[in-house]
Specification:
The complex is a heterodimer. Chain A is of the alpha/beta class. Chain A is built from 14 helices and twelve strands. In chain A, the strands form three sheets. Chain A has an eight-stranded parallel sheet. A two-stranded antiparallel sheet of chain A has the order 1-2. In chain A, helix 9 (269-279) links the parallel strand 8 (259-264) and strand 9 (282-286). Chain B has three domains: 6-63, 3-methyladenine DNA Glycosylase II, Chain A, domain 3 (Orthogonal Bundle), CATH 1.10.15; 70-330, TIM Barrel (Alpha-Beta Barrel), CATH 3.20.20; 343-464, Rossmann fold (3-Layer(aba) Sandwich). In chain B, the strands form five sheets. Chain B has an eight-stranded parallel sheet. In chain B, strands 13-15-14 form a three-stranded mixed sheet, sandwiched between helices. In chain B, strands 1-2 form a two-stranded antiparallel sheet. The chains are: A alpha/beta, B alpha/beta. Chains A and B meet through helix 3, helix 4, helix 11, helix 12 and helix 13 of A and helix 4, strand 4, helix 8, helix 9 and helix 10 of B. Bound molecules: iron/sulfur cluster (SF4).
Chain lengths: 439, 470
C-alpha cells in the first residue's frame, strides 16, 4: 500500500499526543459530539499525525493506534467526516476493502476435564446390556472450538410403574403400554430411539400406592429383561421411602451399573450412596438450583460416603422454559464453568429432568387462560417444542443426559445436539441469496 | 467497559457527594456505573458544570460497552441491540434483548401483506406482569424490482410503527426502499463483498445502520466492518451467515462464539451486534411444522449464544411462544430476583369452602405452586406474600416471610379470612412450618402445614381438606 515504513514506536508517540486530556482546541458539544477546530475541519495534531499519508494509510494507522488503546476512533471518524464537510454530505467511500485477519484465542482457564461416567455393563463386565454409555469428559463448554467433546448427549426416556396423569399429546403415545412398564420400556427403545430408559417407581409413594420396595424391585427386573440399554432407576421422590426403594432396586440390578436417582440433601443420601457403591452403580446427585448445595452434596457423597468420582452424575434441577429456566440454565453454566476451571467438587456430568417442561401450561393447556393473550394455537405442537427448547437451552449450558417424554421432542433434541456435536452430515447449502427464498 | 472497579470510575466524578443523582455519595454512584444500573448522565453536575466536561468525556469512553450499541427505528417502538460487556449472563447481565424481526416480501399481494403485518404487530403473550411482543418487520425483496420494493415498504409504514430491516443485495432496490423509509431509520441488509461500495454510499447518504454479510468468512466480515468503520460509519451489524443444518450449523455456532469473544476481549473491528437468520431453515424443510420447529431451534441457540437480532419466518404461535420465552429467559437480569405482585390470587373458581394457601412472590415459587394446583384442577386462593422475591425456605430464615407480613398482605388485599371463608384456616408451605404458632396468634386463624413440595399439595389436600376443626 505504501513505501513509507512507520515504526510501531513512532505511531505510539504520535498518538500519545492525541490523548484526550491533552488535546487542545477540543470542546464538547452536548452529549458526546467532539468538535475539532482547526483548518479545513482537520485537526492540526491529527493532520500532523497522519502526515502526508493517503487516506487509506491513515486508516491503517488508526487501526494500529486503536489497538494500542488510544481513543482515536471518535476523533478520526469526526475529522474524516469533516474533511468533505465543506461540500456537505458527499459520501466517503474507499476504493478497496481494508484487508483484515480475524483471530481469537481459546479460553486459557479451561484446563480441567469433566469426569467420564459410564452407565450400563455388558457381559464382558458382568452385566447384560448390549452397550454402555459414557457421559462427560468435556474440557470446554459444549460444542465450542476450544476443545473436543468426547461423547455426545444422550436421552433417557421416562417409564412409570403405574399409569400417571400426562399431557394429552404425551399420553397418546403410551396408551397401549401404560399398564406395563416392560412394554413401555420396549416401546421407547424400539420405536422412539431412546438411548436409555428411566424406570420411575412412583407407586412406592405412601401417598400413592405405597407399593413395597421388594415388589417395586420386580418391576426393575422386568425392565432389565425387556430392554438391553443402560437404565436409570428413580424412586417416587418421597424422602422417607426412597432410600429403601432404591436399596432394593440396586440389589436386583447388581452388575448392570444403573444410575440411581437420586441422592439429595433432604433424604438419607448415605443409604442411597451405599446402595450404589455396594452393587456397583452410579448415583445421581440432585440439588435444587443452588451451586453451593451441589458442591456440598457432591463432597458428602465422595468424602463421607466414599462414592468414586467416576460414579457421580449431577442433577442441579431443571425448571421449564418460562418457569425458572433462567435460573436452571445459569446454574448449570456456572457449575460447568467452575468445573472446567478446576473446582473438582463440580467436575461431573450433568442430567436434566427435561420432562419438567410439561409442567408449563403452554405445553399442555388447550388455550391461554388469559383473555388478552393472542391465540396460542394447537397444543399438540406447543408441547413438544417446549420440551425441546428447555432441553436444548440446558445442552448449551453443558448438560449431558436428558430425561424426556415425548417422541418428537426426543427426535428433534437428538438431531440438534448431534448437529452441534458435529456428527450430522448434510448437503452443503448456498445461503448467499437467502433473501430471495420463496416460501 | 474498560473499568473494573468503582474506584476507577470514582476518580473522574466530582467527589462532592452532592446527592443529586439519588445516591448519597459519588462512590455509591460509581458502583452503579460499574454495574450499569445508572448512566453517566444521571450525575447532573458532570453534565452541566463546565470544568467536568473533559472528565465526562473520558469517563464516557471508558464506560462505553465493549459491544457497540445500535438503535434501529424511531419513537416508542425503536429497538436497541448490542451493548454487551460479558460473555456469560451471570457475570453481569445481557443488555438489549435479541430483536425479533419477522419477514414480509415484496411479491405478496396487498391483502396478505397487511394481514401478516397486523398479526406480527398484534401478537402478545402475558408473562410475569407484562406482555411479551415481537419487535420488527423484515422486508425482503423477492422481486428485485425497486418499485415493488418501495411500494411494499410504504405499505409497511402505513400499517405499523414497528422498526424495519430492508433486505436486498441490490443497491437500487435498497435506495428505493430508503427513499420511502429513511426517516424511520431502518436497518439496511446487507452489504457484501460485491455491493459494499454502493451500500456504503447509501448508508452515509441516508444515515442509517447497516448489516455486513460474509457467509462463513470471518476475515471478510471483519474487513467489511473495519472498512465501514474506517469510512466513519458507526452503526454496523454483523451477519456471518446462518447455515441451518449439519456441520455448517456447527461452524455457524462457533462463528458466533468467536466473534463475540473477540469483541468482548477488545477487538474493536468486530465488536458489533450480530445478526442471525433462522429463516434459512425454510430453505431446507418444506413442511411448515418441521420448518417452524427447526427455525425455532436455531433461534433458541442464538438467543442463548450472542445473536442480537434475528430474521424469522414462521408466525405460528407454537413457534412464537418459545421464541419469546427463550429470549426473555436469557435477557432477564439475573441480579434482580424475579417477582410477581403480592395479593390474593384465585386458582380455578374458589368459594367460601376453598383452601387458602400461602406462598411467596418469588416468581418461580409462585408459578410452580399455581401451575401445580391449576393442573390438578384445585379451586383455591393463593396468598402471595411480598418476600422481596425470595423463596420460601430462605425467606423464613431471612425474615422476609413472617406472620406479620402474611397479615399485612391479607389486609392489603382486603381479604378477611373470617368473612370470605368458612374455615378461617390458612395452609402454610411445609418449609415454613416453624411459623405455625406465630401465624395462629397474629391472624387468629387455624394454620395447617402443607407439603414441602407444592407438587404434592393436591394429594395432601385430598386427605387434609376440608379441615376437621372449624
Ligand atoms: S450527582 Fe454526581 S457529584 Fe453528586 S453525588 Fe451523585 S455522582 Fe456525586
Amino acid at each position: 500500500m505504501t513505501n513509507k515504513n512507520i515504526k510501531l514506536s513512532e505511531i505510539s508517540d504520535i498518538f500519545k499526543k492525541l490523548d484526550v486530556e491533552e488535546l487542545e482546541g477540543v470542546t464538547i458539544e452536548g452529549d458526546i459530539e467532539l468538535d475539532i477546530s482547526g483548518g479545513g475541519g482537520l485537526n492540526p495534531a491529527l493532520a500532523y499525525a497522519l502526515g502526508h499519508e493517503a487516506a487509506q494509510v491513515s486508516l491503517h494507522v488508526a487501526n494500529i493506534a486503536r489497538m494500542l488503546g488510544y481513543p482515536v476512533d471518535q476523533l478520526f471518524a469526526t475529522s474524516m467526516g469533516a474533511v468533505p464537510a465543506a461540500e456537505t454530505t458527499r459520501p466517503n467511500v474507499l476504493d478497496e476493502l481494508i484487508p483484515s485477519k480475524f483471530e481469537v484465542s481459546k479460553v486459557a482457564e479451561w484446563n480441567n476435564s469433566i469426569e467420564e461416567v459410564t452407565l450400563g455393563a455388558t457381559s464382558a463386565d458382568g452385566g447384560s446390556r448390549k452397550n454402555t454409555i459414557t457421559l462427560g469428559g468435556e474440557n470446554a463448554l459444549p460444542y465450542h472450538f476450544d476443545g473436543e467433546m468426547p461423547h455426545r448427549n444422550y436421552v433417557t426416556m421416562d417409564v412409570f410403574d403405574m399409569p400417571i396423569g400426562m399431557a394429552k399429546s404425551v399420553k397418546e403415545n403410551y396408551e397401549d403400554v401404560i399398564n406395563d412398564p416392560a412394554d413401555w420400556a420396549k416401546k421407547v427403545v424400539n420405536d422412539f430411539n431412546a438411548d436409555m430408559v428411566t424406570i420411575h417407581l412412583i407407586s412406592t409413594d405412601p401417598l400413592i400406592n405405597d407399593t413395597p420396595a421388594r415388589e417395586a424391585a420386580k418391576v426393575v427386573e422386568d425392565v432389565l429383561q425387556a430392554v438391553d440399554v443402560p437404565i436409570v432407576i428413580g424412586g417416587s421422590g418421597n424422602p422417607q421411602k426412597d432410600p429403601e426403594v432404591l436399596e432394593k432396586a440396586a440389589e436386583v440390578a447388581e452388575g448392570e451399573r444403573v444410575l440411581l436417582a437420586s441422592a439429595s440433601l433432604n433424604l438419607d443420601y448415605e443409604r442411597v450412596a451405599k446402595a450404589a457403591t455396594d452393587y456397583g452403580h452410579a448415583v445421581l446427585s440432585w440439588t435444587q438450583l443452588e451451586i453451593n448445595a451441589q458442591k456440598e452434596l457432591n463432597r458428602k457423597l465422595m468424602k463421607q460416603c466414599g462414592v468414586p468420582r467416576d460414579s457421580i452424575v449431577m442433577d442441579p434441577t431443571t425448571a421449564a422454559l418460562g418457569y425458572g429456566l433462567d435460573y436452571a440454565y445459569t446454574n448449570m453454566e456456572r457449575i460447568r464453568l467452575a468445573g472446567l476451571m478446576g473446582d473438582d467438587e463440580l467436575t461431573f456430568p450433568m442430567s436434566s429432568g427435561t420432562t419438567n417442561a410439561w409442567g408449563a401450561r403452554e405445553s399442555w393447556m388447550k388455550e391461554s387462560p388469559m383473555n388478552e393473550d393472542s391465540n396460542w394455537g394447537p397444543r399438540e405442537y406447543r408441547g413438544p417444542i417446549w420440551e425441546i427448547i428447555t432441553g436444548l437451552t440446558l445442552s448449551l449450558a453443558g448438560n449431558d443426559l436428558f430425561m424426556m417424554m415425548h417422541p418428537t421432542s426426543v427426535e428433534v433434541l437428538k438431531e440438534i445436539t448431534q448437529t452441534l456435536f458435529g456428527s450430522v452430515e448434510t448437503e452443503s447449502l448456498d445461503i448467499t441469496n437467502w433473501i430471495g427464498t420463496e416460501v | 467497559m474498560k473499568l473494573n472497579s468503582p474506584l476507577e470510575a470514582y476518580k473522574y466524578l466530582p467527589g462532592t457527594n452532592c446527592g443529586e443523582c439519588g445516591e448519597t455519595t459519588c462512590m455509591a454512584f460509581a458502583s452503579h456505573l460499574i454495574d450499569r444500573s445508572y448512566k453517566l448522565t444521571d450525575c447532573k453536575p458532570m453534565v452541566k458544570v463546565n470544568k467536568y466536561s473533559k472528565k465526562f468525556d473520558v469517563l464516557k469512553q471508558l464506560l462505553a460497552p465493549e459491544i457497540h450499541e445500535v438503535e434501529i427505528g424511531v419513537g416508542e417502538r425503536a429497538v436497541k441491540i448490542g451493548g454487551d460487556d460479558v460473555l456469560f449472563r451471570h457475570k453481569l447481565t445481557f443488555f438489549n434483548k435479541t430483536a425479533l424481526a419477522y419477514d414480509v416480501w415484496d411479491t405478496m399481494d396487498e391483502k396478505d401483506l397487511v394481514e401478516r403485518i397486523k398479526k406480527i404487530d398484534d401478537f402478545k403473550k402475558f408473562y410475569v406482569g407484562e406482555f411479551l411482543t415481537l419487535d420488527m418487520i423484515a422486508v425482503r425483496s423477492t422481486s428485485n424490482d425497486p418499485e415493488k420494493f418501495a411500494a411494499t415498504v410504504k405499505k409497511v409504514i402505513d400499517t405499523t410503527d414497528m422498526p424495519m430491516v430492508l433486505c436486498s443485495f441490490n443497491p437500487a432496490v435498497l435506495r428505493a426502499g430508503l427513499d420511502e423509509a429513511a426517516d424511520k431509520k431502518p436497518l439496511i441488509y446487507a452489504a457484501n463483498q460485491d455491493n459494499w461500495q454502493e451500500v456504503a454510499e447509501l448508508v452515509q447518504e441516508y444515515d442509517v445502520a447497516v448489516t455486513v454479510f460474509a457467509p462463513n468468512d470471518l476475515d471478510l466480515l471483519k474487513s467489511l466492518a473495519g472498512t465501514f468503520s474506517g469510512m466513519g460509519i458507526k452503526d454496523i451489524v454483523l451477519d456471518p451467515g446462518t447455515f441451518p443444518t449439519g456441520k455448517e450449523l456447527k461452524t455457524t455456532f462457533n462463528n458466533f462464539l468467536k466473534i463475540r469473544r473477540a469483541g468482548i476481549n477488545g477487538d474493536h473491528d468486530i465488536a458489533f451486534p450480530i445478526m442471525t437468520v433462522p429463516m434459512t431453515a425454510w430453505m431446507v424443510y418444506d413442511d411448515d411444522v418441521s420448518a417452524s420447529y427447526w427455525e425455532t431451534v436455531i433461534a433458541s441457540i442464538f438467543s442463548v449464544r450472542y445473536g442480537d437480532i434475528m430474521i424469522l419466518h414462521s408466525i405460528e404461535p407454537y413457534a412464537l411462544l418459545p421464541q419469546l420465552h427463550i429470549r426473555d429467559t436469557i435477557y432477564t437480569d439475573p441480579r434482580t430476583p424475579v417477582t410477581v405482585d403480592p395479593g390474593v390470587m384465585e386458582v380455578g373458581s374458589p368459594d367460601a369452602n376453598s383452601p387458602v394457601i400461602v406462598t411467596t412472590n418469588f416468581a418461580l415459587t409462585y408459578y410452580t405452586v399455581e401451575s401445580d394446583l391449576a393442573s390438578s384442577k384445585v379451586d383455591c386462593y393463593i396468598l402471595v406474600v411480598d418476600t422481596e422475591g425470595i423463596g420460601v425456605e430462605a425467606a423464613v430464615a431471612g425474615g422476609q416471610l413472617t406472620a406479620e407480613k402474611i397479615k399485612r398482605d391479607f389486609e392489603a388485599a382486603e381479604f378477611d379470612l373470617k368473612t370470605r371463608t368458612n374455615y378461617n384456616t390458612v395452609i402454610l408451605p411445609g418449609l415454613a412450618a416453624r411459623l405455625q404458632g406465630d401465624v395462629e396468634d397474629v391472624l387468629g386463624a387455624n394454620v395447617l402445614i402443607g407439603s414441602a413440595d407444592s407438587g404434592r399439595l393436591p394429594g395432601w389436600l385430598e386427605t387434609n381438606w376440608p379441615p376437621t376443626k372449624k
